Amino acid sequence: MASRATAALAREDEEYLLTDLVLAECVYVLESFYEVERSHVAELMRSAISLPSIKTLDSSTLLRALEVYETNRLDFVEAYLVAQAETTGVREVLSFDRSIDRIDTVTRREP
After folding, report:
1. Tens-place pLDDT, residues 47-105
2. Interacting residues of 77 by C-beta distance below 8 A, sequence separation 6+
3. Phi then psi for 92, rounded to 5 degrees?
4. Distance (Å, whole) CA 38 – CA 46
């Protein structure tokens, strides 16, 4: 399956949509099921985003989420929340996850 998927993605005459939710699922599966190291997961996802055949709704936010995920060791969902907060200018987020406190660009508030 991997070789067929790789061949399909390598075609520059095709376009495929990589949604934020699908990228999050890829991160989760690679990390939890396949036990891929966080830095390698981030590298793989950045590589996928950069493929000419891949289109995203907002690649800069996804790349920022991957950066936060990798460097600040947040779960991807929290890293995505941080990236979205930064992008939208809504710098305060509601969350019980204290790991967000490591990020100085947003303020976490418990509900």
Report:
1. 999 999 999 999 999 999 999 999 999 999 999 999 999 999 999 999 999 999 999 99
2. 24
3. -115, 130
4. 12
